[in-house]
Amino acid sequence: MELISESVTQHKEKSAGFDQDRLIWRQFVEASSPRTFCQSWLQLQCRMLKGVRCGMVMLGDPDQGAFSPVAFWPDAKLSMKHLSGAAKRSLKERRGLLVAGKEVNAPGYVHVAYPVEVSEKLHGVVVLEVEEPAGPERQAILRMLHWGAAWLEVMIRKDEAQRLYEITESLENVLDLVTSAVENEGFQGGAMALITRMATILECDRVSLGFMRRNRVQVKVMSHTADFGRQTNLVRAIGEAMYEALDQHAPVLYPPPPEGLPLVTRAHEELFKHHGSEAILTLPLESNGKLVGGITLERSGDKPFTQDTVEACETVAALVGPILETKQREERWLIRKAVDSGADQLSKILGPGHLLRKLILTGLAGVVIFFSLYTVDYRISAPTIIEGEVQRAVAAPFNGYIKEAPVRPGDVVKEGALICLLDDRDLRLERLTWMMEKEQLMNQYHEAMANGERAQIRITRAKIDQADARLTLIEEQLARTRVVSPFEGVVLSGDLSQSLGSPVERGQELFRVAPLDSYRVIVEVDERDISHIQEGQRSELVLPSMPGERFPFVVEKITPVSLAREGRNYFRVEAEMEKNSDRLRPGMEGVGKVTIDQRRLIWVWTHTAVDWLRLQVWRFRP
């Protein structure tokens, strides 16, 4: 009987142990949180190993900590502080280790610690207190703990995957909401699409959007409502709730969470009491650091706003605020845009901050005032040419051929110097012919005198006079074959050195000579500036060949005839040089500046553009 009773007792103990193992495994499989999973896993791990006295699992932020216990065995009421030394050492060295009992004041026991690493990141540690095993069994305990820790890695990866899925889903919702606000061109369409989509995704009874106007919030759009009265009690209550959130520069959640910041929720409470909104969330909209409006979401009491939902809504508000504010600003009238832009710039100038803008504006104002008051000599610049006071043209005296041309343009010649020699061979032959003709006529004349033929005498005498006249003309032409300079000067034009032997006609200009000691200045003044020019005005000339030297001259005569050259009209203004130089030559060109009077510097720089603008306005004015 005693044997039977002992057998029954052992059978009951085995049945009880089997039921407990099945319960722990069920908890392990059906664990819904990391803490429950770790607690059931630790129980199974401790039951599999022999001689385990106690143990715990510590988890924390990856590679950051702080690591805190999440599971205990056999009882959470027991103190586990003596295991912290091995746990810290394992976390520091990032490896499994076995600490002898002598080192931790636990004779007969050892502390076994194994770190939990996932993707090379330290997530926690498992530490057990086990009866001191024999040599071969120590390695078996570490091996079993290593295999068992793989379940913790699975749990951590599963938890990370779940979090990643939730984050991804939240980001997709945020992107969907932002897209609904962007894809519509106008403000009203974008705002309506946004709040309707928010009401659908976030399962809200009503979503409203309002914008600041004249220091108050005006409700612009309400979900599932195309038209609503602007002055209804509900709209006013929602607007007050938005203003309450904007005034505090923070999202307002009603009923307020116990762990949140203490915020004023009076308007939200009024919305709850009079319109039955049990869960309310109001988010401020911000653009460029300025509060521009708000969004109010309303739910029933059985679906309160969670912290994750609040954070997602804050992200949406931060993204759509600038988008909606830009759409609303773009729909303003043009004159309203100009007024608002001017007011904004004026507020930046007169208000606090924007120091750089104010310094730049002050500097520009100083520059404008300086140029408006500072006066300078107003001078008109124009192309200027030096001409000889007298220019003499040397022409061909008769038809002939060029024999010699010893001078070229730029050569200085003396008075009476040879500048061209014409071929005289034909003239000499003609002179010889006429001389022979005259001698024959003289013989005929003497013969008629001897015979007393009076008529023949008269005829012959007339022919002799004709021959004398012809010889006189030929002699004069022979004298003119030497073309000489009429006075001392410089040759301006006429290069015949490459035309020797070529024919010339009577009156054809061969050279142009100007004196060296007297010049006149021709200033080509543009027709737009001719009204400022007067006789007696002092001026200066600078030549490219002598850029460091200035030649003063005085205006003497204004030619009242406009000439055209290179697409512009100009007047010839004659002036007299006050200073001569041996290096000056007729034909030199430079830039002359005629001094008019003292004018303001800003007028000097802008009068040309102002005159052109006046002309264009007059041209197109009816």
How would you characterize this protein structure?
The chain is of the alpha+beta class and 622 residues long. The protein folds into 4 domains: 13-162, Beta-Lactamase, CATH 3.30.450.40; 183-331, GAF domain (Beta-Lactamase, 2-Layer Sandwich), CATH 3.30.450.40; 392-510, no CATH class; 518-620, Efflux pump adaptor protein, beta barrel domain (Elongation Factor Tu (Ef-tu), domain 3), CATH 2.40.30. Helices cover 44% and strands 29% of the residues. It has helices at 2-29, 34-48, 84-93, 135-182, 187-201, 233-248, 266-275, 307-330, 334-350, 355-373, 425-451, 454-480, 601-620, and strands at residues 52-59, 68-73, 97-100, 109-118, 121-131, 206-213, 216-222, 252-254, 279-287, 290-299, 375-388, 392-395, 400-404, 412-413, 418-422, 482-484, 489-493, 503-504, 509-515, 519-526, 538-543, 546-565, 568-577, 589-600. A 6-stranded antiparallel β-barrel has the order 11-20-23-22-21-24. The chain has a 5-stranded antiparallel beta sheet with strand order 2-1-5-4-3, sandwiched between helices. Strands 7-6-10-9-8 form a 5-stranded antiparallel beta sheet, sandwiched between helices. A hairpin with a 2-residue loop joins strand 22 (546-565) and strand 23. Helix 1 runs antiparallel to helix 2 and helix 2 (34-48) packs antiparallel against helix 4. The longest helix is centred in the N-terminal third of the chain and has 48 residues, at 135-182. It is elongated, with a radius of gyration of 58 Å. Mean pLDDT is 80; it is low at 1-18.
